Amino acid sequence: MAANDFKEQETVAKNLIAFMRQNGYSRLSLSKLSGIPRTVIDQLLK
Question: What's the chain's average pLDDT?
Fold first, then answer.
């Protein structure tokens, strides 16, 4: 189960990075727009 969770986290991170690049968002700007703390976004991207 843990290996599957890691794959899903990796997929989310890749999609989030692609979304941020396409829309020109930084981690800080995405945090402000979404209301998600920057530390959470940083954890998702690791």
Answer: 90
Which amino acid is present at 3?
A
Asked if 41 contacts 31 with a C-beta cutoff of 8 angstroms, the reply is yes
> What number of other Cβ atoms are within 10 A of residue 12's Cβ?
12
Q: Which amino acid is at 36?
A: I
Tell me which long-range contacts 30-35 makes (C-beta under 8 A, separation of at least 24).
Answer: none
CA atoms lying within 13 Å on the CB side of residue 25:
17
Question: pTM of this prediction?
Answer: 0.76
